[in-house]
Design a protein that fits this description.
alpha/beta, Rossmann fold, single chain, seven-stranded parallel sheet, about 450 residues, globular
């Protein structure tokens, strides 16, 4: 098993080198690990006073970092002199958060060989190690256990089809013995762990709820979106759908929906109340698209797809380096262009969580691929959420569908989008469900910190 594991790691790295000829992401994965230890040894502080606690947080990518972030922020509040190291497996997470100010160091995680694990742990010298959700690296765990360094898994979620719970999963179960404690999201995960003899587990919840709720409490704004979401010329008011982390199949579905969107097309003869409400309100529909990949080629494809509509881009008004929260002095022409546009492409990263505040409902991408992206960033603002069919690995999606605040659709199915647009009472009911769901699930950050780093 050990030989097979190490061989698979080498093949993975070699594969990323080859794939890097065709994929920027794969190229970053490979290049980021070349001369990695020279970078780590040069960057990290060797000083380690007795009063300073060193925390190592490991995240797979951006989503897991958002679960680690509230913990890091609270640790820094409690222990201003603590030393924080953050590692990522994915280039997406590293590239977006490599300059995160509350971390002393941000690195790629060296590949999980025993030699790399020993060297990395020796260099960073952590006192407490926190892995997020479901990252499992056997050699790192073994080294941490040898050095008697506490290891925690936070915001974890387990499923019955994982190797740990299969008859052939003995070697996977051995990895779990290295953890000091598991902080899981739900009772089902706790029950699964206890079924295989793991008792150092407690239900703490998901720290993402604390993170997304905190975002709603700040005063950040995006001036261009404030202008964009004002009324379309000739219309009394407008609704706005914010589509986050979209991929081409998501964008095609949204195009098909908004292209056919008109009062006549969407009115049901049996829904006279909707007819009256729609005609009196005179609402128009606007769409903010924040694609998961913001490379130039993808943005041009989106512009082409929506070419029959009036389209504006974030970079048209800010460039790629301007601060979206600043008070810009827009010209009259810019203001008119923004307020009259129907499609706004958010062709930058890091602003989606703020952009949701300008929506009336949300569409979250990824559901036609490996899985949906973060729906809580939208739900915390009280936005009804729609997404594709691949959501079964995401507890919050399952919960909100059951409660009636979120909805899954397949290609060509836009009826629920039509209902959200036209039925004001239904939309408000969904909104309340989403907002209350987030509020009821706050507190995971405090639960975890009180256990691993008490005041």
């Amino acid at each position: 098993m050990s030989i097979l594991y190490h061989t698979s790691l080498k093949l993975y790295l070699l594969g990323s080198k080859i794939a890097g000829l065709f994929s920027k992401k794969a190229a970053l994965f490979y290049s980021g690990r070349r001369e990695l230890f020279n970078h780590i040894e040069h960057s990290i502080s060797a000083s380690h006073s007795s009063k300073e606690t060193r925390y190592w947080f490991h995240c797979a990518s951006v989503g897991e970092f958002e679960q680690a972030r509230p913990l890091i922020e609270k640790i820094k509040e409690r222990e201003p002199h603590s030393y924080i190291v953050v590692t990522f497996f994915s280039p997406s997470g590293y590239e977006l958060r490599k300059n995160y100010t509350l971390a002393n160091n941000v690195f790629y995680l060296p590949m999980d060989t025993m030699a790399n694990a020993r060297k990395f742990v020796e260099v960073i010298n952590p006192n407490i190690v926190i892995f997020v959700k479901y990252e499992f690296w056997r050699n790192y765990f073994s080294v941490l256990n040898e050095r008697d360094i506490p290891l925690y898994l936070v915001s974890a979620i387990f499923r019955a089809n994982q190797p740990f719970f299969r008859w052939w999963g003995a070697n996977f179960r051995k990895m779990l013995a290295n953890f000091t404690h598991f902080f899981v999201q739900d009772v089902e995960s706790e029950t699964l762990l206890r079924s295989i003899g793991v008792t150092n587990v407690s239900v703490a919840g998901d720290t993402r709820f604390d993170r997304v709720f905190e975002i709603t409490q700040n005063n950040k704004t995006i001036a261009a979106l404030e202008l964009f979401t004002r009324k379309i010329v000739g219309s009394n008011n407008s609704l706005c759908c914010v589509a986050g982390s979209t991929w081409p199949p998501d964008e095609q579905l949204l195009h098909n929906f908004i292209e056919q969107y008109s009062v006549e097309d969407l009115i049901d003869e049996d829904c006279e109340s909707l007819v009256k409400e729609k005609r009196v309100g005179g609402e128009s529909l606007k769409l903010v698209i924040a694609p998961h990949e913001v490379d130039e080629l993808h943005i041009k494809k989106i512009e082409s797809l929506f070419s029959s509509f009036s389209v504006v881009k974030f970079s048209d008004f800010y460039g790629q380096n301007n601060n979206a929260y600043s008070e810009l002095s827009f010209t009259s022409a810019q203001k008119e262009k923004l307020s009259s546009a129907q499609i706004f492409i958010l062709d930058t990263v890091g602003l989606l969580s703020t952009a949701y505040r300008y929506g009336n409902f949300a569409y979250v991408g990824g559901g036609f691929g490996v899985g949906i992206h973060n729906i809580l960033e939208a739900a915390t603002y009280g936005l009804p959420v729609v997404f594709g069919p691949n959501y079964e690995k995401f507890k919050e999606a399952i919960d909100l569908i059951a409660l009636g605040g979120a909805f899954s659709i397949d290609k060509g199915q836009v009826a629920i989008l039509e209902k959200i647009v036209l039925d004001v009472r239904f939309r408000e009911q969904c909104s309340q469900i989403c907002r209350e769901y987030v509020q009821k699930n706050l507190g995971a950050t405090a639960n975890i910190l009180n256990a691993i780093a008490p005041k």
